[in-house]
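Recall that a protein's primary structure is simply its ordered list of amino acids. Everything else, from secondary elements to tertiary packing, is in principle encoded there. The following example makes that idea concrete.
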Amino acid sequence: MKALLAAAVSAVVLAATPSLADSWKDQYKTLKFGILSGENEKDRIARYTPFEEYLEKELGVEVEIFTAGSYDGVIQAIAADQIEFAFFGSSSYAAAYTETKGGVVPLLTRLNNDGSTGYYSVVMVRCDSGYKSLDDLKGKVQAFADPDSTSGFAVPYFNMVKQGYNPKEHFSAIPFSGGHETGVLGVVNKQYDSAATWQNNATDGRWQRMITKGMIEKDVVCPIWESPEITSGPFTARINLPNDLIADMTTAVESIPEKDPAAFNAMRGGDDSPQKGWKRVDHERYQWIVDMRDWLKKQRRGG
């Protein structure tokens, strides 16, 4: 039944036109969307406030940003019907999909200037540490960001194992830092020897943006490992929302680069971001992430 409902929702979204329907507005006076804790809350809210204001103008209802101290806080909020939409990473989307038994549907993902829709996990070390590869990190402390982070945990952990580096055996400890920025800062402050985060390319990613924001100095941290390309996470809706609401929201988000370039530039992270727009997606794109998370869960159960 969930699969049939998901297909029906996708069909409505794909058929959406720029005109915005009003039928759902009697039921939803306020819409809430969640954003993950990949950066500090102040910067998250600053980036997404223009987007919030844009949606209010486009949709004609109040819109609120929902933040939480962990990825799981956003996952649980959408599972409990406390928020209607969320910006997820691939792994946190897969977690929400599993938690809700298929009760969420992916709508849009980031489209980059080069036509790609992916990014990479990287392992960061202090540039002056002398570490050049995962081999050099044997017996060291490797921080992961969050259990529900794609680039900060699931993908690096999975690929390290596949490459012959079982994190539980290769490193002396593998703590969760609580977020991408806190992990990188932990490396800078020598709390961790290395930490996982993300980048789109050699000039744009979480650690490069921390330099731009003045949080860390240039040439203090360096990447020594990069994952295969990761499918960018989706802007996601609860599947139990009215179809016309999902369609209207999809159209509004999809149109922001043209209708409000300033708001789009803020939410994507500034001029250095490679994102030029959005691409419509469906669940099939993320099934391999669901499978990977299942593999990781079995590994944890096994000790």
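DSSP finds eleven helices and eleven strands in the chain. The chain has two domains: 2-115+232-301, 118-230.
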